[in-house]
Design a protein that fits this description.
The chain is an all-alpha fold. Helices cover 76% and strands 2% of the residues. It has one domain: ABC transporter involved in vitamin B12 uptake, BtuC, CATH 1.10.3470. The protein is globular and about 55 Å long. This is Sugar ABC transporter permease.
């Protein structure tokens, strides 16, 4: 038999590929599950793979991804932000109230300022008041939803939105929804911030061991406050674009105690492999987690599954992901 010489370049390339796959096993598994779900959806309903439904799912996933990235920031810092959904709803309300009264850029800046202000308050209460993020953001969630109900009187509000504003939520570019393009830009920016910047390195250090990070010269308090401000700002951006999509704000989900957005962001980051104790998680994982839940719920809606059952399934997904994460940690 003749020996076959394998070029060093080919060996090196194969080794690099194995390292990439090994380092991102969870992400590849998630991508595989998403592909399988899409196949199941197409089998169950021909409508699922229609252009209209694909566009709708892409748009909805965009609204899930942006706040999920905010939740990822909080989780990486060993915290959690339960006020993200309330900030989205507040931003929707403020957008509808402002868009007919002030120029669009001014309305956008004011909405983003509201989001950043909420994050600043959350962060200061956590680091200066030495309070648990869970308790602080739970309180903020309740206060903001109460404020939205107070301002609207519990009734829906609508606006005759300008075309430029409506385009942000309803428009497309070569068939791709504008919210999807905005979300893609946010994903790229957050990938750089979290995985390629000094702030990102500080964030992982704080989440892994805040005391060690402090002794290493990292300003832990500043990192945590920045995290909450960024998380709320991403939520405000989501609310602004959602208002552009609907042209209205309905507080009925508040009065019925809906907590879908809060749970959806947690589900996305946990399913994406983030560790709630901090210091572990990726942007691509959060993106895939949000995509998986978005595709799954699209299938459930087309199948006519009751919304209450959908909430049950979401809770089971979170518990399952947490149990899987705990199992991986115990094995390692």
């Amino acid at each position: 038999m003749h020996e076959v010489d394998v070029p060093p370049a080919a060996t090196k390339s194969a080794g690099s590929l194995r390292r990439v796959v090994s380092a991102h096993t969870e992400e590849f598994l998630l991508a595989g599950v998403i592909v399988a779900l899409i196949a199941v959806g197409g089998f169950l309903s021909p409508v699922f793979l229609s252009q209209y439904n694909i566009t709708s799912v892409a748009r909805q996933v965009s609204f899930d991804v942006m706040p999920a990235l905010g939740q990822l920031l909080a989780v990486l810092a060993a915290g959690i932000d339960l006020s993200i959904g309330a900030v989205i709803r507040l931003a929707q309300m403020v957008s509808i109230l402002l868009v007919e009264r002030v120029p669009l850029p001014v309305a956008f800046l004011l909405v983003m300022a509201c989001g950043a202000a909420v994050g600043l308050v959350n962060g200061l209460l956590v680091v200066k008041g030495r309070l648990e993020p869970f308790i602080v953001t739970l309180g903020t969630w309740t206060i903001l939803d109460g404020l939205s109900l107070l301002v609207t009187g519990g009734r829906g509000i609508a606006a005759n939105v300008p075309d430029a504003f409506a385009y942000l939520g309803r428009g497309t570019v070569v068939g791709i929804p504008v919210p999807t393009l905005i979300a893609a830009l946010v994903v790229i920016i957050m990938s750089v911030v979290i995985h390629r910047s000094s702030f990102g390195r500080q964030l992982f250090s704080v989440g892994s061991n805040d005391l060690a990070a402090h002794y290493a010269g990292i300003k832990v308090a500043r990192v945590r406050v920045t995290v909450f401000m960024l998380a709320s700002s991403l939520a405000a951006l989501t609310g602004f674009i959602m208002a552009a999509r609907t042209g209205a704000f309905q507080p009925t989900t508040i009065s019925s105690g809906g907590a879908g957005t809060e749970l959806a962001t947690i589900a996305a980051v946990v399913v994406g492999g983030a560790r709630l104790s901090g210091g572990r998680g990726t942007v691509i994982g959060a993106l895939l987690g949000a995509t998986l839940t978005g595709v799954l719920f699209s299938i459930l809606v087309l199948a006519g599954i009751d919304p209450y059952v959908q909430s049950l399934i979401l809770g089971l997904i979170i518990l399952g992901a947490l149990l899987l994460s705990a199992s991986r940690r115990s094995k390692s």
